[in-house]
Structures are given as structure tokens and as C-alpha cells.
Amino acid sequence: MDARPIGIFDSGMGGVSLLRDAMMLLPTENFIYYGDNLNAPYGDRTEEEILALTENSADFLLQLGVKALVIACNTATSASINVLRKRLDVPVISVEPAIKPACEIPGDGKIFMLATAASYRALQERMPDPQRVLNFGISGIVARIESGIVADDAFDDIFDAYLAPYHGMKADGIVLGCTHYIFIARAVERYFKKHFCGECRLF
Ligand code: DGL
Fold first, then answer.
1. How far apart are CA 174 and CA 163, in angstroms?
2. Residue 46 CA to ligand 1 centre (angstroms)
3. CA-based angle 99:142:112, to the nearest 5?
4. Tens digit of pLDDT for each residue in 82-141?
5. Model confidence pLDDT, tens digit, residues 153-185
6. pTM above 0.85, yes or no
């Protein structure tokens, strides 16, 4: 077996959710996790800045001898995946918001995608059902999670600032389009079930 580690990268601690799954699925592999906490959140940055920061982080992990690179960040993926795959000699694996399976659920309700503007732009052309999807690039959530807050009722003020005008609508699905949001899945579900109707299924 090739004992070199697999590098996992995110703008901060969001990708730890993915590291946890990777460690369970691949128990004999070694991993190095790198979170760019200093520069998080990436969601408020330009695509050029996100690309430069992601390339720096990828180079750092490559210097440590990783045999593959996982971009465990939807935002970094959107700005850098084509460049990294062309430039690097190791396999580059990445994540994108699960908008495709979400749009496959039947119903006439909306799909609420919670993803940064950069992620949304990258997906726009491939959006399976654009009329049905409402995207919210919500500023402030990632910074709060980075500060260690994940309680179920700790995000209502931020959600309200973006979602209050939509209260009462039918939500068939909610896409957690940022790896940080895995840590607050219950907070998201609780908020949507309280203020929206429909199944509010999480993706
Ligand atoms: N974990 C990143 C993502 O999946 C967070 C984005 C950010 O840093 O704003 O998109």
C-alpha cells in the first residue's frame, strides 16, 4: 500500500465533516487536514482571491507529500477545480452542492440552496431545474461556526435576515451547499420546519 497521506482542505473546519467520513471509509489510509481558518470565510471573497488561497493551500499540502488532494469546500471547488486538475500531478477530488438529487424529488415546492455566491455561479449553467431553485449565499454563518457555535437556536437571527420574506412558502428540499453547514444541519432543519411548509428534506 502507498503509505503517503491524503490531503484534505477546506477554508476552515467545514471539511472536518468529510474527514470524519473518509477516516471511517478508508481506515488504513493516513490523512492530513488543512483548514485555512486565517482567511475564512471564503464566501465573502472574489473568485480570484478564492483561487489564489486554494492554490496556496494545495501547494502546501503537496509539499507535505500527499498522494491525493480532497477539496472539501464547495466554494474552493467552484473557483479552482479546473485549474488544480490541470496543474497538479495527483488526483484531485472535490465536493459540490447536492442540487441534482434535490431537484429530483417530486413536488411543486421550492428547493432552497444554501451555498455561497461563487458556488451558485459555478453551478448555474448546470442547474437541473432553475425555476425551482432559490439560492441564498448567507453571510455570517461560517464565521459563527468557526467561532465554535453550533447550537440549534444560535442562527435564527442570521436566517431571518435572509429568509423572513420567504416564510410560509413550500420547501420540498434544502441543500446544505457548504461543508460547514453539516455541523448545523439540525439548526437548519428546525428553522425551516418552523417557518416553511412542505417536507423540508435536507440534502
Ligand atoms: N466550507 C466552505 C464551503 O463548503 C465554506 C465557505 C466559506 O468559507 O465561506 O463552501
1. 13
2. 13
3. 30
4. 999 999 999 999 999 999 999 999 999 999 999 999 999 999 989 999 999 999 999 999
5. 999 999 999 999 999 999 999 999 999 999 999
6. yes
Q: How far is the CA of 53 from the centre of ligand 1 (A)?
A: 13
Q: Which residues line ligand 1 (CB under 6 A)?
A: 10-12, 14, 40-43, 73-75, 116, 119, 142, 178-180
HEC profile for the chain?
CCCCCEEEEECCCCCHHHHHHHHHHCCCCCEEEEECHHHCCHHHCCHHHHHHHHHHHHHHHHHCCCCEEEECCHHHHHHHHHHHHHHCCCCEEECCCCHHHHHHCCCCCEEEEECCHHHHHHHHCCCCCHHHEEEECCCCHHHHHHCCCCCCCCCHHHHHHHHHHHCCCEEEEEEECCHHHHHHHHHHHHHHHHHCECCCEEC
